[in-house]
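Page 42, continued from yesterday. The earlier attempt failed because a stray header line got pasted into the input along with the sequence. Redoing it now with the clean sequence only.
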Amino acid sequence: MSAPPDELAFDLKIALDAAKRWQKRKSRREQNKKNAEQGKWTAVEDKERLAKVANRRIRQLKQVSPAAELPQPIMDLVQHGEVRAEDVDNDFMERVIGATAISSASAFLSAGPRPAAPCAGSSPACRTARGPLARDSW
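This time it went through. Structure tokens are written below.
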């Protein structure tokens, strides 16, 4: 919902409070970044949440690639079944992240080039982008 035309949607107090909270959590964000770079995923997030991330990524893997095209390490992940919090450790998360990154890149490249969506022609910017000789710009 938008603000009424005679009232600003910006509240300085809310913005300042948000900035204070952001500054207050700076050291924790930096520590999380350092842990993630070192592959210490369980120090960044709790195992329940990491299990959900792993399950979502594995589901995406199953949708993107037919089983016959997956390398064996990735096949092992796909066949693992539902990931539970007790299954999660740093090494497991590294395998999931690596497998899904490789698979996503190969799926993107194997899709090949595809044409851009055609312009609907309803906006002036679209008509301009199509050029002065576009049929509806006369």
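Notes: Confidence is low (pLDDT under 50) at residues 133-138.
Reminder to self: strip header lines before submitting.
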